[in-house]
Every structure is written in structure tokens, then in C-alpha cells.
Amino acid sequence: MSRQPWPFLICAGCAVLLAAIFALCFGALHVSVSTVVHALFLPGGNLDEVAIRSLRVPRVILAAIVGAALAGSGALLQGITRNPLGSPDLFGLLSGTECGVVVVLYVFGSHSELIATLAGIAGGALALVLVFAIAQLSRQSHSVVAVAIAGFSVGILVDGITGILIKWRETQYESLNRWAEGSIGGRDPEITRAIVPVVLLALAVGMFCARQLNVVNLGDEVAIGLGLRTRRLRLITFGAVLALTACSVTAAGPIAFIGLIAPHVARAFTGPDYRFVIPGAALVGSAALILADLCSRTILAGVFDELPIAALTSAIGAPALLFILRRQIRTS
Amino acid sequence: MKRAFGWIVLLLLSACLLSLFLGEYRMAPAMVVRAIFSHSAPRADRFITTSVRIPRILIGVLTGFSFGVSGVMLQSLLRNPLADPGLLGVNDGAGLLVTLFLVYFPAASGWLLPAVAFAGAMLAIAALLALTSKFAFQPLSVLLNGIALSLGFYSLTKIVKTVGDWQRVQSAIDWLQGNLTGVSWPQLQILLPWFIPGLAAALVTAKLLDIHELSDDSAIGLGARLGRERVVVLSIVAVLSGSAISVTGPVYFVGFLSGNLAQRLVIGSKRETILLAGFIGATMVVLADLLARLLIAPRELRLFFLINLVGAPALAWLLISQNRIAKLAAARARAHGGK
Known about the structure:
heterodimer; A: mainly alpha; ABC transporter involved in vitamin B12 uptake, BtuC; B: mainly alpha; 0% strand
């Protein structure tokens, strides 16, 4: 495939916009594009416009930002570990973050989203350390599949703890259950406002590292020979990854597979240059999550409950993972 | 060898007795015994022991046995110590079909459930083989493919649960929680006609596995008809784990843990390993179920979370000691060669 990063980025940007317009128009109530434009740019207006402004717009923004955060975190992980299976979910990061958030919000009963996010970062960092310790001890830290299995086992372990905690504090079960399944419906707009700057900042940090990630992908020896400080780069990148994952989990619960697949989709068009892969992945992730959310709202309009978005993303993501595995084994 | 059997059976018996005597509903041991054997005991006591605890223990034993046996069979057939019906997607394949069945054919009888679960298990096994056969069944890759398959089946199940009619979904959720809450004699009756033939067939075919475990070439040289025998063994696995799933819902790691333990404890014929793994699996499920009932009583945990807490570190440990796995396989091959 010919590599044309700029046209791809522009197309992906347009796709995000289109997806957002679709998502604003359709739902339990279908409205025309002109109503949406009115709602967005003119104050006041009729009931439809107010509903769109206060209900759908925050939701679409949340979907876009969570998608970008997950995809960006996946792209950075794949870059720094040189592992095509790198993603918050397969590396146990999503589970660790979720566990941290659950502990703070539901065991200690804190109501602060900030503390929850920090706990999420701590949980995610712990999970990452465990995963890489296991991979290192097995002397297979360069084996693509072994790291993923290490991540899987850490993820399962942490999920077990989370499950027990959730069951233990059953009083808040309903709301917690909804969040823990990965869903972006009915969230407080304050959360969106809080995470947007953090996600953008972390993505910017990632972009700042992109050139060095390119060097790392030439191999450790080359990177060190070219004078790259790999340890510092690792710290910064993992910091950005943790922040991105923690923001997305606090806002929307664990949503699987966007972080794995969006970078692969982007890379297929942009080639291996991380200066393009990172923004490309973020745009693809945004568009994908907006559309997934739209599907989960509309396929089931009128049914008592919405489909948790994570179920949708994993139904699509699992076959994609199989595909990536096949290709990976064939090339190795 | 004999000693290992003795200890495990003793452990299983004590786990069963503990589950019989302990619980949220407190009864003195003497009362329990009286409730079982005497008609003059209070009705509540009689109900709790004979209709709740005893069938629940028996079902725990049978399902654990099934998981353990299918774990060993998968491990030696695929020559992969990481194999487990849950991790390879068999459980979730069965779970998907059972959920579909419960949601869309609620009128059909419970007797059909194990058959449906069996079909789902076969579906998952076929998919896994189709995906991995080209790559010579590399242990880690097979496992990761299985994990991806099971995630896929699981999310489809979730979608079915969201799309389906609410009340029917509720019954499916009650059924497939991954624990033994609310099982009683009817479930045991459903399970038995699958368990007994399945176990018998497993013991009969155990000899085949001794040969399959060597390598494709030696197995063919010894006269094994690889393709046909693989299908037979995998169907037995599907019968055992499928029927167990249709009662417990998806449970992971039991086959993985008990298979590996049994292989370490016994260097003998496959038949003995299979039996031992069955007993270990049964002990694990009964113990985990006891803990699930007691830890946060009066509520119940999902038993598979507890098993995961043991299984996941074990998986990580096995990954770390992969070199040792290779050595173990070599030792096993030597042991067979020397016989």
C-alpha cells in the first residue's frame, strides 16, 4: 500500500467530523443536520436543540476523547515496546487501572474523580511493572506472544480482585456495574471537562517523543549508538500511556480493543513513522468510538437498556486480534 | 503414586464434609447428621442439607472432575501445558450457545442444555484448530488464539444478553454466573447422563494419549490414526466440559491447574493422570465454592473469581519457568520411552 500520511490524516479528521455529525443527528430522536447546526452555534432554540446541546454533545465529545486516549496509549505502547500486540487491554493496564479506581471510589468511598484517576494511574503502573517483571523473568521480554500472555494473566488476576471488591460492596452495584462494563452513557459532563486537557497534554507529550520512538524501533543498539537516552524516553512514554489509560477508564470504564486496533489501522496507511501513527491512531480511535457509541444507542433504541459499548468493541476486536496474531506468526 | 491418590481423595472428602457442615445457615454437626438420617429433624434443617448442600457438593465434584479430566486430555493432545478448556475458548463457545438457547427457546427443556453446550464446545474447538493448525500448535500462540476466541465468544454472549428479552435474559444470567448458586437435584440429573459416558470414554481413550504425546511422527509410526483419534479425544473433552459448563457457567483455570498438578505428581500411565486430575479438579471446585459461600456471607462470590486468583499466578509462573516446561516434556518422553 502506498504510504500517504497527510492525506490519511486529513481523511481521518473528516471521518471523525462525519461520525460526530451522524452521532448528533441519530438516536432515540432523529433530527436534521440543520437542527444540529442551530443547536451548536445559536443559543436558545426549541426543545430538540436544547436536548442535543445538553445530552448528545457532551456524550459525543466524551466518546471522541476516550477513543483518542485509548488509541494514543496503544500506539505509544506499541512504539516503546516494539510489540504489535501492545495495548492497554492486552498488557493488563486496563484491568490494573480499573482496580485502582474501584478501590478508591467504592472501597474508600471517595467522590473525587481526581483521586480516582491518580489511583488508576497507580494501579495501571503496578500492573505494567508486574507484566514486564514476569516477561523479564521468563527471559522472553522480546517475545511478542509471551508478553501478551503475561499481560493476560496479570489482567485476569486483577479482574478477580476487582470482581470480589465489587461483589463485596454490592450497595452501589447498579451504577458500578454499568461503569465496570465499559459504557459512556449517563456520565457526568464534568468528567469530560476534566479529562480533555489531560488527554490532549499526554498526546502532545507522545508526539514530542514520536521521533525518538522511531529511533527505538530501529533496535536498542542503534538507539543507544545514536545517543538516545532510552531510560528517560521509557519513563516519559509510559507516563503518558498511564495518564491516557487512567483518564479513559475513569471516564468510561474499561473499553477493550480500541487501543490495540486503532494503531494498526493507522499504521497500514501512514507507514511506520510514529509522528503520523500517533495522531492517526488517535483520530481513528475517536471515530471508531463515536460510531460504536452511536450503534449501541440506536440498534437498541426503545429497549430498556443500552448495549455496553465495550461488548461491541470486543466483538469486533477479537477477530481483529486473531488476524494480527496470524500475520505476526507468519512474519516471525 | 498411590500415596498421591490417597492424599487427594482424603482432601476431597474433607472438603466435601466441610461444605456439608459450614454455611450461612448455622447448624451444629450433630444436627446436620440428624437432618440427613432422621425424618424427625426440623424441616428447615432437612431442606438445607438434603436439597441445598448435598446436591451442590455433588455437582461441584462432578463439574470439577469434568474440568480436570478435560484439562489433562487437552494438555497431552496438544502437547501444551498451558491448555485449558476455559482459556482455549471452549467454555465461552459453550456459554454463547447456551445463552442463545435460553434466550430464544425458553420453552425447551433443561435436558437439552448439555447437548447445546456440547455443540458450542465443538464449535469453539473446531475454530481453534482451524486457526492454529498451520503453525504447528506452538504452545503460546495456541493459547493466545484461544484467549482471543474466548473474548470474542464472551462479547457475543454479552450482546445476546443485552439484545434479548429481559426476563429470559435474567434466567440465562442466573444460570450462567460462573458459580454454583441455586443448583439442586434436577441439575445433577441433567449432568449425570453426560458425565458417566464421558468419563468412561476418557478412561478408555487414555492409552491413545500416551502415544499422541510423543510427536506426530512417532505416533504415526506406532500406528496412530492422528486425525480420527484427535477428533475422538476432542469430542470427549467437549462432552465433559460442555456438560459441566451447562450447569456452572464459564469457569476458567480448573483444568489448567489440576492437569499440571497431576502431571507433576504422577509419572505413570495417562489413565492414572486423568483420574488424579479429576480428583484435584473436584477438590478445587468444592473448596472454591465453599469459600465463595462463606467469605462475604450472606452474599455469594462468583467462584471463578476465586479460582482466577490462584490460576493467574500459576500461569505466570509457568510462563516464567518455560525452560522447565521443556525439560519436563523431555523427562516425560524419557519416562515413556523407558517403559
